[in-house]
Amino acid sequence: MSVTTHQLIQWKQQGRSIVALTGYDYAIAQLIDQAGVDLILVGDSLAMPILGYETTLPLTLDEMLHHAKAVRRGVKQALIVVDLPFLTYQESVQQAMHSAGRVLKETGAQAVKLEGGYPAMAATISQLTSAGIPVMGHVGLTPQSVHQLGYKKQGKTVEAGERILQEAIALQEAGAFAVVLEHIPADLADRITQKLTIPTIGIGAGPHCDGQVLVTSDLLGLSEKQPPFAKAYANLRSTITQAVKDYSLEVREGKFPDL
Ligand code: KIV
């Protein structure tokens, strides 16, 4: 049985931390799943470390669907949540319904994530959830708004913090099953986590969230640049470079393949 959205809510009630990572392809998603991660987010961060775009904005729904299908083929246990890319849900509720419907129908993922809060996204989430589409919210730093917000920490003033808290509450009331809190002060994330009955999944939001998510390329040390709050648990850039250099040398010296 794979992890469900209801289980995440129960885990919050039981104080069991939720472990989430991004996944973009079959091979890594399979390893992450077998290692016991609870939730795999096919994040639109796909655009940057994997596809080489400058921001998440150019990513299309078709590109996302292509990667989400590959992730689905690799995952047996974890809940799979797929980001709706920029401008595939903001134009209208109908557009959001069409895009989220394609994600669920074509990829086999169980839920979608979208960025932004009150009022526009609350209305959209309400419609999607009443059509049976589980939705994860995302407030604080929302990378699809990079041209308005930059990549700066959000919610640093009392008013800005209050706005993010109210957005998170509105998303919960609209039916979201969880909410990502990105790059906000730890004490604000703590307040939001205590206020909500749905789980908060933090990234750069301190230790008090109900769960944590990292971009897998950052965790593996594969990203060219990574945000200050990320932690690399391996250095695959240097491992891969060394493996390729060793191979090249052996081919050039006639040592590989051996007789
Ligand atoms: O796209 C993504 O990877 C995300 C995470 C940073 C939460 O939205």
Strand order of the largest sheet: 1-2-3-4-5-6-7-8
Distance between the termini: 48 Å
CATH C-level name: Alpha Beta
Beta-strand residue fraction: 5-15%
Instruction: Tell me the CATH superfamily.
Output: Phosphoenolpyruvate-binding domains
**How many helices in DSSP terms?**
10
Low-confidence segments, ≥5 residues, pLDDT <50? none
Give a list of the ligands. Answer: 3-methyl-2-oxobutanoic acid
Q: Helicity range of the residues?
A: 40-55%
H and E order: HEHEHEHEHEHHEHEEHH
> How many structural units, i.e. domains?
1
Q: Give a count of the beta strands, DSSP E runs of length 2 or more.
A: 8
- Stated plainly, the CATH topology is called TIM Barrel
The coarse overall form would be: globular
For the CA atoms, what is the radius of gyration?
A: 19 Å
Question: What's the average pLDDT?
Answer: 97
The helix-and-strand class reads: alpha/beta
Binding site for Mg(2+): 44, 83, 115
Organism: Tychonema bourrellyi FEM_GT703
Catalytic activity: (6R)-5,10-methylene-5,6,7,8-tetrahydrofolate + 3-methyl-2-oxobutanoate + H2O = 2-dehydropantoate + (6S)-5,6,7,8-tetrahydrofolate
Protein name: 3-methyl-2-oxobutanoate hydroxymethyltransferase
